[in-house]
Amino acid sequence: MALLPLNEALANMLAQLPTPTETETLSLNQAANRVLAQDIISPINVPNFDNSAMDGYAIKLADLDQFSTFTIAGKAFAGKPFEGEIKSGECVRIMTGAMLPTDCDAVIMQEETEQAGENQIKFTNSIKLGQNIRRVGEDVAKGSLVLAKGSLLNVASLPLLASLGIAKVEVFKRTKVAILSTGDELVSVGKPLSTGQIYDTNRFAVRLMLEKLNCEILDFGILPDDPTIFEETFVKAQQAADVLITSGGVSVGEADFTKDVLEKLGKIAFWKIAIKPGKPFAFGFLGESEKQTVFFGLPGNPVSALVTFYQLVQPALARLSGLNDDYLANLTPKMTACAATNLKKAAGRQDFQRGFYFINEQGELMVKPVGQQGSHIFSAFYESNCFIVLEAERGNVQAGEKVTIQPFNGLLR
Ligand code: AMP
Ligand code: MG
């Protein structure tokens, strides 16, 4: 099978993934990191009334033609409006957020005034109609679309809903994701290692990333390299979860059974991608069409597992969780930087090298590679803040050449 370019794999995969259908209604307090299953239309104007943007004095602008000093008729506080009406030549002492008194059409900030006798005030600067006034509906107009279906509910969007007095939202149910690692050599953290054994890094890394993506996690542990056990466990996971993510056993070694079992239990969509690290990656479905579980088989090498999760599983889970196309389009943005050192690259596959980007003294965006680039060298991740994305056909890069970088998003930071 020829190697599949990443963008083709991604497009192919996203086209096959279902969007969620099941929803639930939650209070705003419970809705952090959930995905909206409805459009939100504003029930009110924000602000709901004209109000002052400053501490100062509210006047009728036309009075300036006749008066150079004004009498203070009363005070307006946020939450305690000035109730009366002002006469010609009067003003109202007003605080930030207080409702604009009837007929007033400008607010002069405190710092641009002078005392002119008891209860009298003078204005020192020129004044414009409507200055320092926050108008009704200026932030959000009643009846307008505030958040579209498929938006993420987070620190930017939830307070906005609170400002509209919306107490409950309809969200998609969380994606249930089963995870497991495969390999006779693997031991869970916390247990002692025997000869030839290693700790299971991938299940730990995958769990952390799924927690960040607010998925519901079902942990099926470590499977020995035994196709019968694979089959039994895959069936259980298929019944319990929307998604199964495995690692290891997707290559062509003699203990690599994932692909065979997957072919028996469902269908495999593709499994070799033209990226480095991360070539062996399986995508498919387990079970019949009524209860299909999406399958992702990550490579065993921890760096490859993380890279393929970031590049492929992350957008797939965004789609499965109901996040909209706008969100997906900005999930892993790229930019152009200047290589600070030479980079080693063999032409053939698209490279995702671990890099560190920074701004140099001339203000230019630069990037340097971090540590060794082998797919078994996990330690380099900690010091890196981006992927250096090198085109498949590109060879070695000289210092000073332009390269594409992909700063880590919240998943890896
Ligand atoms: P495999 O794809 O199963 O042949 O694994 C490739 C390499 O990744 C081998 O060196 C494995 O020991 C290693 N590996 C597989 N799974 C894990 C894991 N969960 N944590 C750490 N290393 C792993
Ligand atoms: Mg293995």
Automatic annotation (TrEMBL):
Enzyme class, UniProt record, top EC level: transferase
GO cellular component, one term: cytosol
Protein's UniProt keywords contain Transferase: yes
Name of the protein this chain belongs to: Molybdopterin molybdenumtransferase
An example molecular function term from Gene Ontology annotations: molybdopterin molybdotransferase activity
Function field: Catalyzes the insertion of molybdate into adenylated molybdopterin with the concomitant release of AMP.
Cofactor(s) listed in the protein's UniProt record: Mg(2+)
Keyword terms of this UniProt record: Magnesium, Metal-binding, Molybdenum, Molybdenum cofactor biosynthesis, Transferase
Residue span, MoaB/Mog domain: 178-319
Pathway this chain belongs to: Cofactor biosynthesis; molybdopterin biosynthesis
GO biological process, one term: Mo-molybdopterin cofactor biosynthetic process
Any matching Pfam family: MoeA_N
Catalytic reactions of this protein: adenylyl-molybdopterin + molybdate = Mo-molybdopterin + AMP + H(+)
Family, as annotated: Belongs to the MoeA family.
Listed EC numbers: 2.10.1.1
